[in-house]
């Protein structure tokens, strides 16, 4: 499985990072998790065909995670996409999503592909979709609005993505995680609704995790300094347009 990082920044404007958005690809199946700035350009740079993207999953409806959707759909239309696009969101956000699509008049574009909205209850653990040998499930994250973290299983391996969240006991329950993608809005500061790098390595059993990739990063935070102190190559500071394999 390839994990493409379209953006790795927090909600604060970053000089080097776009807001966090990640595309999971395996065997020609592609799932985009959250949609931040200029998604079409980023997907092209990462060599994911706009006509082939299978689904979009929204972890929550904070602006930094959703605002690229109009541009994504517009680009898909211009690329003459035909395949239906699944968009999955928490049932509490369905009305907002429908209203947004109607505000952008997506139903009036001579659009040749169907947009299929599917909802889930983000307070429940549930399998959301599967394809290309990947299976996506959600669990409740600890954030200020309804938010899900994701578990992605592929070829006997498990990846966990925290989305925006405080340190979560649910994530700590795994016996083994091959790759943990975790938000680290700060390096050291403890702030409600988010996590810091220091908390991640202190509160989870790092021995049980193969690799930790940090996303949702803020400018001016001493991540490098903290990673250096750890003396491990296990913790990776996310960068826009990088691809990881699992
Ligand atoms: Zn965010
Ligand atoms: Zn958020």
From TrEMBL:
The keyword Hydrolase does not apply. Signal peptide: none annotated. Keywords: Zinc. Pfam families: Anti-Pycsar_Apyc1. One of its GO terms (molecular function) is 3'-tRNA processing endoribonuclease activity. CDD domains: RNaseZ_MBL-fold. This is Uncharacterized protein. It comes from Rossellomorea vietnamensis.
């Amino acid at each position: 499985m390839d994990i493409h990082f379209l953006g790795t920044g927090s909600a604060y404007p970053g000089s080097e990072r776009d807001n966090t958005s990640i595309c999971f690809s395996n065997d020609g199946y592609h799932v985009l998790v959250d949609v931040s700035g200029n998604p079409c350009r980023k997907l092209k740079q990462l060599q994911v065909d706009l006509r082939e993207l299978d689904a979009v999953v929204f972890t929550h409806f904070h602006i930094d995670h959703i605002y690229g959707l109009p541009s994504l759909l517009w680009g898909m239309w211009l690329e003459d996409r035909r395949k239906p696009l699944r968009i999955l969101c928490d049932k509490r956000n369905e009305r907002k999503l429908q209203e947004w699509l109607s505000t952008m008049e997506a139903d009036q574009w001579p659009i040749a592909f169907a947009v299929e909205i599917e909802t889930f209850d983000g307070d429940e653990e549930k399998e959301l979709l599967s394809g290309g040998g990947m299976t996506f499930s959600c669990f409740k994250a600890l954030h200020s609005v309804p938010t899900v973290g994701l578990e992605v299983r592929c070829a006997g391996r498990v990846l966990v993505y925290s989305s925006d969240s405080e340190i979560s006991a649910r994530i700590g329950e795994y016996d083994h995680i091959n790759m943990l993608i975790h938000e680290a809005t700060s390096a050291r500061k403890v702030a409600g609704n988010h996590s810091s790098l220091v908390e991640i390595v202190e509160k989870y059993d790092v021995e049980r995790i193969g690799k930790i990739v940090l996303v949702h990063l803020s400018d001016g935070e001493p991540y490098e300094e903290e990673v250096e102190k750890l003396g491990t190559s296990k913790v990776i500071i996310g960068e826009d347009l990088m691809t990881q394999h699992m």
